[in-house]
Design a protein that fits this description.
By secondary structure, this protein is an alpha+beta fold. The protein is built from ten helices and 13 strands. It has two domains: 144 residues, FAD/NAD(P)-binding domain (3-Layer(bba) Sandwich), CATH 3.50.50.60; 120 residues, 2-Layer Sandwich (D-Amino Acid Oxidase, Chain A, domain 2). α5 crosses α9 and α7 packs antiparallel against α8. InterPro entries: FAD-bd, FAD/NAD-bd_sf, Ubi_Hdrlase_CS, UbiH/COQ6, UbiH/COQ6_monooxygenase.
């Protein structure tokens, strides 16, 4: 693994022959042997030089590998920022929580024991204010945003009662209101630095080139409102590992473009589709209009009551390519 800040340049062979090379030792005469051995040359900031059959760019949205390789991207910025940090609870948390607020969603993501990560979307001005407030005030704001101060408690919602009646025909497949909602665990302390960053959608025109593959945020970024960025990255890593493993099993060159294209063809469609869905959600929740607010709430509450639909949505979010509506 090479840390992004250490990489100075990449040199790809302009011509290649399928000549196998054992290990990562540099060839004796650089120009000719680099071409003949089919290796990528990586120059590091400390003067060290590495040679590799395949470079995997997994260095984030501002990928140095992607920029050095000259791979172009398409995307746009959102008028929002996200604050991320880690908080502690009084008891172990094993459930991910999310609440949609007027300024953007807040997510509570368990990381083990009594700790969870916070991803809180808001305007850049609000992000600056929340980042600079005291730790105690920030924790109070987190607890208020998760369960207090934003309208009636879901158990007392008239909308819940209406939706429960509306979907009562589903019988055993429907869940009751009380079964659907629990109170998020309270945060009792901030145990990490608060970081704020602007939100954007970005997608690379290409995931691969000769002896290069991009994965995760280096290839694509999405709005964090559904916490899907990490799942997409895991999907990329699994797909690339599978392609490489299959290539090795038949003696193929792991940096060959025809092999790497199988990874891109497998992942690009799924990632573009998820990015479009999340972008649509972001735009839909950016509109504060009474009737639309009711429809949005009814749709989410309805999904809670129809167990097959709920399971399909969860399956899709975990990487199943099938549409949650038609599978």
């Amino acid at each position: 693994m090479v840390y992004p800040t250490r990489l100075v340049s990449l040199a790809f062979p302009s011509k290649s022959r399928n000549v196998g090379v054992a290990g990562l030792k540099p060839p004796s005469t650089e120009a000719e042997e680099l071409r003949r051995s089919n290796l990528v040359k990586l120059d590091l900031s400390d003067g060290q030089t590495l040679y590799s059959k395949l470079v995997v760019g997994a260095d984030g949205s501002k990928s140095n590998v992607r920029q050095i390789a000259g791979i172009k991207t398409t995307g746009w910025s959102y008028p929002q920022s996200a604050i991320i940090c880690t908080v502690e609870h009084t008891a172990e948390n094993d459930t991910a929580w999310q609440r949609f607020l007027p300024s953007g969603p807040i997510a509570l993501l368990p990381i083990g024991d009594n700790f969870s990560n916070i991803v809180w979307t808001m305007s850049p001005e609000e992000a600056s204010r929340h980042k600079s407030m005291s730790s105690e005030d920030f924790v109070m704001s987190v607890n208020r945003a998760l369960d207090f101060g934003y309208g009636p408690h879901p158990n007392s919602s008239s909308l819940d009662h209406y939706v429960e009646r509306l979907f009562s025909d589903f019988g055993g497949t429907a869940a009751s209101t009380k079964e659907c909602f629990e109170v998020p665990p309270r945060a009792i302390g901030l145990i990490s630095e608060r970081m704020a960053f602007p939100l954007s959608l970005m997608h690379s025109h290409d995931y691969v080139s000769k002896r290069l593959a991009l994965v995760g945020d280096a290839a694509h970024t999405v709005h964090p409102l559904a916490g899907q960025g990490v799942n997409l990255g895991f999907g990329d890593a699994a797909a690339l590992a599978k392609v490489i493993s299959e290539g090795v099993s038949v003696g193929a060159d792991i940096g060959d473009l025809s092999l790497l294209n199988r990874y891109e063809n497998d992942r690009k469609g799924a990632n573009v589709a998820m990015a479009a869905v999340l972008d649509g959600f972001q735009k839909m929740y950016s509109v504060d209009f009474g009737p639309l607010n009711v429809l949005r709430a009814a749709a989410f509450h309805g999904a809670q009551y129809i167990s097959p639909l709920k399971k399909n949505i969860i399956s899709y979010a975990m990487g199943d390519r099938k549409s949650p509506l038609f599978s």
